[in-house]
Structure formats: C-alpha cells, structure tokens
Amino acid sequence: MKFCKVTCLVQFLCITIITAQEHQILESPAAKWQNQKWEAHWITTPVGSTYDYGVYHFKKGWSLEAKPEEFIINVSADQRYKLYVNGTLVVKGPARGDILHWYFETIDIAPFLKEGHNQIAATVWNFGFWSAGAQISQELGFILQGNSEAEKVVNTNSTWNVLGNISYSPFFGYLQDVGPTEIIDGRKYPWGWKSQPNEDKFGWMEAKERERGIPQNYGTQYIRALTPRDIPLMESKSEPNPKVRDYTGLKLDPEFMSGGSSQIVQPYTKATILFDQGYLTNGYLKFLFDGGKDSKIEVTYAESLVDEHGNKGNRNVITGKTIEGFKDIFYLDGGSERAYETLWFRTYRYIQVQIETGAEAMKMYPIESMFTGYPFVAKANFTSNMQYLDNIWEVGWRTARLCAGETYYDCPYYEQLQYIGDTRIQALISLYVTGDDILMKKAINSLSWSRNSEGILNSRYPARYEQFIPPFSLYWINMLHDYFMLRPDDEFVKRHLTTVRTILEWYIDKLSAHGMLGPMPHWNFTDWATEWPWNDEIPMGGVPPGVKEGGSSILTLQLSYALGDAVDMFSEYGNSEEVTRYKVIQNKINRSVKRQCFDKERGLFADDIGHTSYSQHASIMAVLSNAVDKEEARQLMERILNDGSLIQATVYYKFYLFRALGSIDMGDEYLNLLGEWKGMLDNGLTTFAERPEPSRSDCHAWSASPLYDFFATVCGIGPAAPGFKKVSISPKLGKLNFIKAEMPHPNGIIKVHFRKNEKNFKADIWLPKNTSGFFHYGDQHRRINAGENQIKLSGFGNGMD
User: Taking the mean position of all CA atoms in its chain, how far away is CA 299?
Assistant: First the structure.
C-alpha cells in the first residue's frame, strides 16, 4: 500500500483536513449534495448475499483529454471503503455514523489524474455477522457522485464493474468487539486487480444498481441518509519498525532484528518471532514477502504478554511469558513483493509472527505500520520540578490519542465504542490539551441521536446493538455542561436541551415517596470497585447497593449533580420554568439523602438507605451535588481520604473524587493521590489501564484524566462564566514549587508560571486578547486582564504545601 497526501474538502465550516503530509483548508462544495437527490446510484454485487461477510472491488475507467485542475467527487460505502485513483490510495471512509447520518467524503482527486486513460477503484467490505460493535450497516454498497457535469462521468451505476475477493475470510482467533480478524489466502487473491482491465481473467461483473443516493432531510424514506463528513480525515504517519525481542526455529540477521533489513526463511521451517514496538499503538500494518509458496503466517497482536496464570505483570518483561490476543493468518502464493494488509487497523505493542514454510524459501521484509488516529495536535504543555509528572503526561497523551478515531473509544484493543462515561473525560482532555472541539461536538450529537423511547441514551453510540447504563445519560448532561462552560456556542447547547429534559424526566419519574430513587432498571454501572462484582442477583459488575431494591444514595445524588448542571444551562437561556422546578427537586433530593443516608457517628454517607455499605463514592457525590455545605464537605473529604475501610474509588471514579476536591478548595491533595498512575508507570505500561490489576485493557480513555487535572486542578485554570468568557485561575501546587504551563482558550493561549518557596508565591499569567478573569490563592484574590499579569504574594510559608 502506498500512503500519500490527499486534498480533501469537507462541509464543516471549512474544517481543516489533516493528512500524512499536509494541512489544508479548502472551501467545500459538499452542501450541493446535502440538499438534492444524488444522480449516482448505490451499487453492489449482483451475486451472493449483500448482508453477509464479503470483500469486493469496484472500478471504472475513463479518458481525459487533459489533466484537470480539479476533479471533485463525493464518496461513501456500506460498511467501509478504500479509494484508489490510478493505483494510488487516496482516502479511507466513511466516518462512522448511523442510518440517519451516513457520512460521505468530498475529495479532489485531480492530483492523481493524468491525460488519457484513468481508473478509479475501491475496496469495499461488509463484515456482516462479524461487524464491530460500533458499525451500523444496511447492506453492502458503494456510491460515488461527481460534483459537477465534468465529474459525473464517474458516477456509480451499471457502468462500474465489481469483483468479489474470495481470498478474505473472517477469523475469530480471540473474542472481540472491534470486528473480525482476517484470513487472507494469497493463493486466491487477485493480485494486480487495481491495474488490470475489466475484461481480464478475474471475472469482473457489471455492478448491480440500487437506489439513488438520498441526502439527509430530503427523502420520504431513508435507507442511508447521506450527510457530509463532519470531522477531519484520520492522521496517518509511519511508525518505526518494531524490533525483535525473541525468536525460535531459525537464525536471524542482526539487522533484521533491529528492523532494518529482510530475512530469508528456509523451506520446511517452523519458526516464531516476537516483535516489540516498545509502546502501544494503533496502526495499519503491512507484511511484505517474496516467494514462500504455500507458507502459513500467523500473526498475533497483544498489549502485553502474560504468565502461566494469565497475569501481565511488568509489561516490559517477556521472560516466562506467552502471547495471547487477536490473530490474522496469511497464506502465501509465492509471488514477489506480496503485501498483506488487514482492512481495519490493529492495536498492539507486541506482535508475534509464527512461520511455517513449505517447499519454497521465503523472504520476509521488516514490518511496516502507519499510525492512525484523530489528528489531534497538542497545543498545551506542562512542566514542573517533579519528573514523574512529565512521564504521566507522555503516557496519558498516548492513551488519549489511541482512544480517539472517527469517534472516541473507551479502549482501542477490545471495544472501540464511544461510551459516555469515558467520552466526558476524553472530551475535556481534548479541549484543554488541543483546543479542538470537533470530536466532542460529534460525540454530544451522536450520543443524543441514540435516545430511546424511554428518554435515556444508549450507553455507547454509534452501536449496532443497544445497551443502557442510565448513570451515563446523566454524565451526558455533565458533558454538555462542560461544553457550555468552555465554548461560546449557545445555539449548539440550546439544540440539546430537549434531550436534557427527557433524561431528567426519566429519572424524576423514578423518585420514590422517601425522596430517593426507587428500583432502577438496566445496568447502573458506577465504578469497577471489587466490592461490587458480577453476581446472580445483579448480573452486571460495578453496581452499588440500593439499585435493585431502591434507595441508592450514589445514584440519587448523581441525579442531583446533573440537575445542578441543567439549572446552570436553563438559567442562561431564560428557561425559568425548568430552573424553578429542577431547583425544587434538587433541594428535596439533597435533604432526603442527607436525612436517610448520612451516618452521624461515622460522619459519612452510606451507599444506600439501609446503610449496608460505605464507599468513597457516596460522599464524593454528596459534595458534587451540594448536598452538604462547604465546611461539611471538607470534613467529608478528609474522612474518605483517610478511611481505608471504605470501598475505594478506582482510576475511573477518581476523576469525580478530584472534581469534588477542586470544588471545595482542596486541590492541594491531588498530587498525593496519583499512586495508581505511578504504579502503572512502574509496571512498564506505555498507556494507562482500565482499572487496578488485573486489568483487561491496558489502554483506557478515562485513565488519561491527569492531562486535564494538570491544568484544571494543579494550575487551577477553569471557566468563570459560560463560554469561557471569564477565566478563573486558582493554582494548587501541593508539593510542587515550580510550574510552567500553557493551554488553549477560545481566544488564544493561556500561559502560567508559578513559583513558590517558604516565604513567597509568584505568578506570571498571560491571558489572550479580549480575555479577563480572576486569580485566587489562599485568601488572596486578584483581577487579571488580557496580556501579562504579574502577582507576588508573601507570608504563606510551608503551610500552603
């Protein structure tokens, strides 16, 4: 595969498209095909099932009298496609959506055209039963619409040809939710299909026409409602070649071991080679071979190796461990420079290649990989006098990057699903580190599309099957509120207030006479606390007591927390009726929970009305929901930080622990609470894991939260008014005596430089143009304005540590 630059156009306010080699902003003509029926038809195969697993190639040739200055096309597929022009890969798509939001890409292919004969081709696949959890589908299909009269010659219709590629078959070497791994039989592969004429030996057929393309908001019925892509193309960049860590069954060339040369494998050899990328990544891999007819190549991908008990231990250690994970299998046809590439990317640190050659020697080239992910660019930076924070930054940023593609992912290896619980945290990281809000807006939009007839949201979306985690719907309200506070975009927020209402009404309807939530349906996941395991009574893990029978203080207070955020938004937009009603309900809830769940003897909130257990979680939510005053809140937080008998918040729920600490001016405790993250670093992880050991996922979005807290908690940077129109800076350095940081703001870049010693505290703060706000440190308060602000405070001493 040749990776190359592409000039892309999308209709998203002249959105920036980032490719491997260039950044460009171009005016998009896609709106034309958003508002009228397409002339192009969806096309598919005329034989076999269009609903089952299948990989197909489509192509069309035509002639040009001269190379055009522009040649714009709109293209999509069901489920996915790779588009080639004259043999060069141009674009992959479409961005994941759903039936009513089926994305198409608008691209200019003129740079790849030439005078005379040209050919446009696509590989299109539908995984059918084996489809990924996030992949919605109607049936196999491909569509391409020329943008004007000059380009309509390539419109999809029966003039296109199609070829089924029978060399592909699904392989489930490991249970997964990201789509199938693949068996590719090179002996059946139509090598050279992109360059062969239609009348060649492969048996090309006339494509079958289906319905014409219907844009969103146009048709009387929607098979797939076409809408312009609303995010950039994924970043694509070459990864270094992985290095050999171990091998058996053959002698390796030292240069091959370091990733620099090819390796000959003799006939009738059985060998195993273990490669180590050195860090976890997402990539489209290419395995290149010469010869070796009938050889079998089995490739296994893993985040980590495991010992005989299935434990991962230190991720850098391979001694006494084996690999378990997703597998692809390739059968070689003996040709020269045969490239085997999977249709979807793989997540890996370790790659094991098992080789079984036949009667012919084989040459294996170094493994190539192209990183893929949403094209986030870090505009923030954070340095301090503690080195391990730099390490947390590096690993956290890699975690955030691997968990963001065409949607946010909870984890790239196992699920690739946009869960609300993860996404709220990821979105805040995106805003604070990159300033890019595009994927956050898409997430808020797409999750709102999943609202069911009850009024709550799918726990993750897009998704081809439904799952409801009701607390995640409340976190969606919090996420909308995050956007409301951090971006001046009133129209976007107001469009989603109806969804806020339906979620809250679903919950309010379940309040019992005692003022707390009654028995709750669905999976009310709260945290992966080991004391809340999967069991026969509640066959879903992470669920606290009081859910099945009613009277959960944690869930009831979480409703209050969401009501508070809803009141902020409705107040801003003059919705006085909702403001009055929701305030009354919130106050009633807070009084009820405090009366029935606060244990005066212990000075803590019980998890349920029966006082059957105690966790950090209940008191965290009591603080966030304002169920206690500030002094009571400080006492609560001091108790839960020092009471080891409580059910502890894991790495996910610590995000809410940190929010509670920050809300009552206890952010100086933050750096003392990073033990889990330091432990993961000590254990050789290159991304942060889902939960304490033993952890299934070594890369989980919610665990990257320190990237947000370095700015929001330690630097204390946050919005003091909706839309970030005012800035609040309230640093909590804890044991640090030096911080230098900068982060993006809608108006530019905020820069801070904090220094302290036993006697003085100094702050240099730079705010962008048209931005002002407030500075707080201890009992000192200052107004700050656009430009440079220098602040020197004396007399604090060690008491501020």
Answer: 25
Element (DSSP H or E) covering residue 753: strand 748-756
The interaxial angle of helices 616-624 and 576-597, nearest 10 deg, is 150
Q: What are phi and psi of 630, to 5 degrees?
A: -65, -40
Contact 368, 323 (CB under 8 A): no
CA angle 768/772/776 to nearest 5° reads 115
Q: Where are the alpha helices (DSSP H) in 170-269?
A: 254-257
User: Which of 456, 398, 344 lies closest to 96 in space, CA to CA?
Assistant: 344
Angstrom distances, CA of residue 139 to CA of 53, 188, 373, 391, 496: 10, 24, 26, 46, 31
Mean pLDDT value of segment 2-8: 38
Q: Which residues, including other chains, have CB under 8 Å from residue 725's CB and lie 6 or more apart?
A: 488, 719
Q: Is 558 in contact with 504 (CB distance < 8 Å)?
A: no
What is the C-alpha to C-alpha distance for residues 231 and 10, in angstroms, rounded to an integer? 8
- In the block, which residue shows the tokens 């195969």? 45
Q: What share of the chain is helix, strand, coil (3-state, %, to 5)?
A: 25, 30, 45
CA atoms within 13 A on the CB side of 531: 15
175 has a pLDDT exceeding 70: no
Tell me the C-alpha distance between 690 and 702, whole Å: 7
Give SS3 for 236: strand
Q: How confident is the model at residue 535 (pLDDT cuts 50, 70, 90)?
A: confident
Whole-angstrom Cα distance, residue 458 to residue 584? Answer: 28
Distance CA 540, CA 523 (A): 6
Half-sphere exposure of 211 (CA within 13 A, CB side): 15
The helix or strand, by DSSP H or E, that contains position 655, with its residue range, turns out to be helix 654-663
| Euclidean distance between the first and the last CA atom of the chain, given in angstroms as a whole number | 56
Token pair listed for 222: 């929607």
Tokens read off for 748: 């530019």
Residue 370 has pLDDT above 60, yes or no: yes
Neighbours of 769 (CB within 10 A): 8
The model's pLDDT over 238-256, given as tens digits with 9 standing for 90+, comes to 999 999 999 999 999 999 9
DSSP letter for 526, please. -
Half-sphere exposure (CA, 13 Å, Cβ side) for 669? 19
Q: At what angle do helices 497-508 and 470-486 cross, to 10 degrees?
A: 140
| Whole-number Å distance between alpha carbons of 428 and 437 | 9
Distance CA 394, CA 392 (A): 6
Per DSSP, what are the bridge partners of residue 83? 91, 122
CA distances from 109 to 90, 147, 260, 670 (A): 8, 12, 34, 51
- Sorted by sequence, the CB contacts under 8 Å of residue 756 that are 6+ apart come out as 733, 737, 738, 762, 796, 800
User: How confident is the model over 576-618, as pLDDT tens digits?
Assistant: 999 999 999 999 999 999 999 999 999 999 999 999 999 999 9
* One-letter-per-residue 3-state SS of 596-654: HHEECCCCEEECECCCCCEEHHHHHHHHHCCCCCHHHHHHHHHHHHHCCCCECCCCCCH
Neighbouring-strand partners of residue 250: none
- With bands split at pLDDT 50, 70 and 90, how would you rate the model's confidence at 259? confident
Cα gap 669→734, rounded to integer Å? 7
Q: What is the pLDDT of residues 30-49, one digit of tens each?
A: 667 888 899 999 999 999 99
The count of other CB atoms within 10 Å of the CB of residue 102 is 28
Cβ–Cβ < 8 Å for 215, 227? yes
